Write a sequence for this structure.
């Protein structure tokens, strides 16, 4: 073991001491000693501080907390270490991905703490909500076939921008047995080891892809009716949303390419929708407008119909009508960006090039400058 590894190991073992009242609500849970935590981030600034403090305050003192950094330039590594977390810096010689970060943190935990049964994954722009861990641990304890339990991720400032509201709506997934989870979840160590963790090469959509492999081996994923994390989207510009939509299109294309065949048929419908509404419908409507005396433009009436279907669906999920309308409008508007993302995925694959991150979030420093 290298000197750096020893330093990280002992930093993890001596993680930030907490005052008794800060963790009094969890110290009575004997099962908490079986948990580790992995946070990942890149230039999260104060968001990372809130993230790590939420873990420190809600987990017992002996629970190892690992922070994995993807090339931050804002001092995130030093910040994590100052709070008592074990900090790991990913090697910049390989492309940064969230999957790679989570795997690095997970592998570090199981190497140095082999008795761990559960790992709480959390993104560095999120804060753990009080009471989540107890409910999540109890849920996993009650069903040995459960690999993952996740809850409700909420936006910290949902009304700060329409894009923040869109994200908050997106996080509102159905309660019950699920096909996939997001980046925040409590996971069973044995299940994650069985499928060799996340796919390091995926720049997005790595959580659902791993969940597919878990379900294929008989494991289950469950979304419980409990608040899990607060997320700070910090999205205030159209360009950020557009890039995120392109990223979503990439995830759709890659997901369909990997698991789009029966019986999974993953992302098959979304893939067709992106190509249809984002490319073929506008292309045909405009290209044939002259030859058809404008009749081809009637195809564009399909967009209001698409919005109506999405709106009706969101109402069934319990959204307020105003939120459902907002979500439907922006989903419709995202189709061209989604098609661009799908095209970029296939272009990169045809060229045989390694994917790189599609970044859309501003760092705290960038937000201050603007």
């Amino acid at each position: 073991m290298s000197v750096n590894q020893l330093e990280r190991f002992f930093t993890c073992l001596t993680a930030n001491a907490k005052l008794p009242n800060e963790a009094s609500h969890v110290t009575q849970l004997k099962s908490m000693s079986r948990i580790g935590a992995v946070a990942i981030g890149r230039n999260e600034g104060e968001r990372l501080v809130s993230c790590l403090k939420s873990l420190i305050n809600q987990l017992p003192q002996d629970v190892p907390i690992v922070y994995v950094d993807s090339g931050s330039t804002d001092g995130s590594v030093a910040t994590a270490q100052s709070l008592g977390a074990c900090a790991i810096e990913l090697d910049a010689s390989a492309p940064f991905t969230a999957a790679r970060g989570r795997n690095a943190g997970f592998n570090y935990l199981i190497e140095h703490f082999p008795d761990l049964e559960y790992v709480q994954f959390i993104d560095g722009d999120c804060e753990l909500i009080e009471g989540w861990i107890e409910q999540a641990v109890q849920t996993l304890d009650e069903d040995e076939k459960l690999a993952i339990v996740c809850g409700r991720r909420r936006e910290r400032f949902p009304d700060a921008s329409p894009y923040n509201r869109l994200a908050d709506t997106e996080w509102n997934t159905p309660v019950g047995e699920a096909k996939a989870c997001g980046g925040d979840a409590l996971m069973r160590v044995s299940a994650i080891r069985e499928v060799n963790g996340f796919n390091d090469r995926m720049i997005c959509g790595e959580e659902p892809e791993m969940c597919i492999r878990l379900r294929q081996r008989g494991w289950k994923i469950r979304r419980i009716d409990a608040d899990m994390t607060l997320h700070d989207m910090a999205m205030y510009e159209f360009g950020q949303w557009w890039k995120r939509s392109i990223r979503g299109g990439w995830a759709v294309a890659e997901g369909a390419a990997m698991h789009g065949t029966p019986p999974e048929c993953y992302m098959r419908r979304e893939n067709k929708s992106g190509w249809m509404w984002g490319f073929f419908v506008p292309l045909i409507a405009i290209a044939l407008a002259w030859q058809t005396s404008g009749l081809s433009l009637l195809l564009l009436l399909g967009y209001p119909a698409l919005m109506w279907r999405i709106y009706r669906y969101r109402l069934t999920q319990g959204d307020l009508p105003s939120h459902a309308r907002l979500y439907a409008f922006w989903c419709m508007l995202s189709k061209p960006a989604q098609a661009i993302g799908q095209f970029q995925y296939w272009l990169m694959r045809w060229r045989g090039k390694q994917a790189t991150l599609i970044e859309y979030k501003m760092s705290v420093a960038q937000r201050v400058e603007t």
